[in-house]
Amino acid sequence: MNVTFTQIPQNGASYLQPAIYEFEFDAASEDTLIRILSTEGEELGRKVLHGSHTSGRTDIAPYLRQSLSHEMPSAGDEATIIDTNCHRDVVVEVGGVESEPRTFIAAKIDLSQHVTLLTTQIDYRTMAYDEFDTIGFVNVDANPLEVVITAYDKASQTLSSKSLYTNVLMRQLALLITPKEFGSKVKRITAEFFAKGSLVGTIEYEIRSNLTTAQRIGWINEHHAAECYTFPLRKSLLVEATRKRMESMWGREAAALESDNELKIISAYEPQKQTEALMKILSSPKIWLIRNGQPTAVELYTDRVLSAPCEGMGFVELDLRAAEKGEKLW
User: Over the chain (330 residues), what is each successive 10-residue block's mean pLDDT?
Assistant: First the structure.
């Protein structure tokens, strides 16, 4: 029996949307087995097309989504490019005949662009000396993609500059960047992305000290890429008031549980684009509290995010709860 694939998804398509394969047989086929395989031969899923057919179609996206697992990286000592493991290299086997291999990714991107940055935050950001940031991206066809990282002192004199290169195509990658690589004099950092010699995006960081109440949060954005942001304020007074009230009503043990497991944080005043990005944390499949460069899973305590606009700027308030019972958040 001959099988002809009449439709297969485009290379680099998102598996968070339908990934339809259509095929035809040269003769009627009975109860045809369809297998979804990695290019290494691992079976990711199977189904049977029951009855007698001369053609058929199948959506393989659900089989690819079930293996998706997000992780927030830990801080490194220097800038590096990491693979986020959000791609799937697959073939579809119908009646023993395999399709052409295809690479699927989580993010839905414009495949006509050489490079797409997978970030929803504004391009000008702040970061403390001992923090790190991640910038997700997909290299569609830039060979190689160059990332130039430049560090400046308080007089805007260049302290150091380095270039990173990658030839990896159709993968969700991320730039991991940390100020401490460049020494204690660093006050500003730029990360510039070049594709085929042309600048396609720049992220700039102001390096400054945090307030003692600051909390850095990591989450998965709408492109299924990791992002980070430091909320400068912790509403410990509100939590403390709740704790004292509980202590008077129910005893010290109940009050301690409330204070350990809940954290109320407030962003800085930010432009609308930034507050919109922070509000979308509500729909993130995973959220982390990042301390000393190490992420700890947390959960949103409420089902809404409060935003308070003021003269074109606004702030976002989040309520977090420890993902594990008994874990202290503040």
Answer: 92 96 93 94 92 93 89 92 95 94 96 96 96 97 95 96 96 96 96 95 96 92 96 65 48 46 84 92 92 91 66 83 66
Which residue is listed with tokens 């102001």?
A: 206
User: What CA–CA distance (Å, rounded) separates 162 from 148?
Assistant: 6
Residues 37 and 39: their CA atoms lie apart, in Å, by: 6
Instruction: Quote the pTM value.
Output: 0.86
Q: Which two tokens stand for residue 19?
A: 């990934």
What sign does the dihedral 178-280-17-140 (CA atoms) show?
negative
106 Cβ neighbours under 8 A, 6+ residues apart: 14, 15, 16, 68, 86, 172, 223, 224
Contact 179, 190 (CB under 8 A): no
Asked whether 217 and 300 are in contact (CB, 8 A), the reply is no
β-bridge mates for residue 103, sequence order: 89
DSSP state of 273: H
Closest CA to 327 of 295, 301, 298: 298
Q: Which tokens in the block code for residue 167?
A: 């030839």
Q: What are 275-278's contacts with CB under 8 Å, separation 24+? A: 275/307, 275/309, 275/314, 275/315, 275/316, 276/120, 277/120, 277/121, 277/122, 277/221, 277/227, 278/229, 278/305, 278/316, 278/318
**Distance, C-alpha 231 to centroid of its chain:** 18
- Return the H-helix or E-strand segment holding 44: strand 43-59
Phi, psi (5° rounding) for residue 151?
-110, 140
- CA 39, CA 101: separation in Å to the nearest integer? 7
Residues 6+ apart with CB under 8 A from 72: 134, 218, 226, 286, 288, 290, 295
Tell me whether residue 92 is exposed, middle or buried, using C-beta atoms within 10 angstroms of its C-beta: 0 to 12, 13 to 18, 19 or more: buried
Q: For residue 36, which amino acid is it?
A: I
